[in-house]
Amino acid sequence: MKIGELSRRTGASIRALRYYEEQGLLSPERLPSGYRDYDERSVATVARIRVLLSAGLNSTAIAEILPNVVDDSVVLTGRCPELRDGLAVERARITERIEALVAARAILDSLIGRPLVIDPA
Amino acid sequence: MKIGELSRRTGASIRALRYYEEQGLLSPERLPSGYRDYDERSVATVARIRVLLSAGLNSTAIAEILPNVVDDSVVLTGRCPELRDGLAVERARITERIEALVAARAILDSLIGRPLVIDPA
DNA sequence: CTAAAGCCTCACGTTGACGTGAGGGTCAAG
DNA sequence: CTTGACCCTCACGTCAACGTGAGGCTTTAG
């Protein structure tokens, strides 16, 4: 599929998709015309990219992670302990951010007057 | 207290503290010398600012919230429904981000090989 | 009295993830 | 065969939350 369709199917802007390629997160084929040609897996890949980006990982960190993900977020390849440690650091950062968000939400809740529900979200 | 001490006690850089003031998040008095003079409450205020910032709120959003927080994150003043709605929107955004982070962490966990623990964090 | 901290106000630099044209090919439809 | 609709590659612009001097007061320690 061409870039416009992928954009519509993922919600990512065309510029963003080209940017992801520039960062090595996506490597579409090229049609004789020079147009980018994405396969179906790209849809899932873009989804993962967006999740990780919104989680605060930068593109270089994602570039390290992506090649290790196959199918649907499966454990894979790379018994490289160096990468493992890097990921553990990222994981810790994410956990910190979750805690910050929960704290922030509590502040908002008290302002809104919402009862301090034990929200499963 | 002067800016250096507040910086040490909050972990925020001096530049950051001045920036918060520039954004209307902090309004220290001034000594005859022109030096900023912060009171004790500023310590807690800065802590709240940092929590909200790390939660992804921008300074203008925080500027709306802060005047409504007194003592320790207490429900207060402003029965203004317009603000309430704005806060509800922010809350929704935060919840979305928490979900994104949890999803991202799950991806990392599968890569690390960590068992998919029901982590209370 | 004299350094050495510490503080002040500009004001430009930085980083990441894109936005936004400029200028120009490609391709199905009428 | 000419519109549009899409696509391409530069390449500069943006926005937030600060970082980083430059140049110059003030206050504290000895």
From TrEMBL, chains A, B:
Keywords annotated in UniProt: DNA-binding
Superkingdom: Bacteria
Domain HTH merR-type as annotated: residue spans: 1-68
InterPro entries: DNA-bd_dom_put_sf, MerR-type_HTH_dom, MerR_fam
Entry-linked SMART domains: HTH_MERR
Protein name: MerR family transcriptional regulator
